[in-house]
Amino acid sequence: MGNVLAPVLDLHRPLRREEPLSNPGSFDELHRQCKEVFPQQMEGVKLIINKALSSHFQVTHTIHMSTVGQSSYHFNTTYVGDRQLSPTETFPMLVGDIDSCGSLNAQVLHLVAERIRTKAVFQTQQARFVTWQFDGELRGDDYTATLTLGNPDMLSQSVIVVAHFLQSVTSRLVLGGEMVYHRRPGEEGAIVTLAGKYTALKWVATLNIGYGGAHASYYHRANEQVQVGVELEANTRLQDTTFAFGYQLNLPQANMVFRGECGAGPAPTQAGGCPGLCQPRPGGKASPQPLDPQTASVHSARRCKITPTPAWLYGPAGSQLVLGLRMFIAGVFPTPLRCFGL
Q: Could you tell me which residues belong to the region Disordered (predicted)?
């Protein structure tokens, strides 16, 4: 009889198992890591006073004084429940914010089931409702599906529907898309946007591209102290492109964080909380009015911001006092550099 050759199995070699895919998160947080590097848009002096009344209830007073825009005062209340999924997620959550002009912005977040989250957003401009929005989000093991209903009105037959879907293809790659459908008397349309995100060990690249334009961002963590971000936005309808480079420098010994930004594009406008300065949009936030076309070319040049954030100052009875001072420096070629300060 001849010899029979059979493969020899190495019983000592462990079997290779694929890592389980994680949840990709929310569609609105695709560019979050890059955006957190950039400083907050602000002009003047902002005073924030936080007071924790209990383990579930907190109030915040915000005073913003500016010589460029309009000064404002905001009173914010936050209530959090007992169910905590992560250090930053606690359900249910109720948030309310009212400004000195009487405009209200309220949000309610609730965990209906282990994988289903709901959110309701209401926004008023003085005594008139401008936004009412309802969100439902389903988070699976490796996917996230979201459906948003904005400003539904059965009488005028108008509605805005936004659908999001994200899927973790690999442990580093996430793909998905967004569809926005709007309907009102005499007008109806839909826009589809594709999205992708790749996460490496020290950097994250994200791209959104659709009919209306593209939004790309790159985040890189050099070390424990230095983080940088690059963001590019192109709008095909407005024929407008903005580019920004931001950095964050942490100084643990001084208990300080520095954020800076340099970029090209339309300079941001500053708006207070009174009517006529902001145009509300679905999502509970307000978008500044666009610049006048005659002055847009003047402001569409390079801009640079330096944002030092001081350490927390603790007051009596657990109150926290934060005094933020930010300086906005804008330069326009070929004119000299202009500085806007206090």
A: 275-300
CATH class of 30-270+293-340: mainly beta
Average pLDDT, the chain: 78
What is the DSSP code (8-state) at residue 224? Answer: S
Pairing of strands 320-331, 313-314: antiparallel
Which residue, chain included where needed, has tokens 């800076």?
260
Spatial CA neighbour of 39 closest among 336, 335, 325:
325
85/20 Cα distance (integer angstroms): 20
Q: Do the beta carbons of residue 230 and residue 245 sit within 8 Å? A: yes
The pLDDT, as a whole number, for residue 25 is: 93
| 226: Cβ contacts below 8 Å, ≥ 6 apart | 247, 248, 249, 250
Listed in sequence order, the residues at least 6 apart from 234 whose beta carbon sits closer than 8 Å to its beta carbon are: 213, 214, 215, 240, 241
The pLDDT confidence band at residue 55, using thresholds 50, 70 and 90, is very high
The structural domains of the chain, with segments of one domain joined by +, span 30-270+293-340
| Start-to-end CA span in the chain (Å) | 98
In b/e form, how buried is each residue of 118-147, taking b as 16+ CB within 10 angstroms? bbebbbbbeeeebbbbebebebeebbbbbe
Among 306, 313, 309, smallest CA distance to 341 is for 306
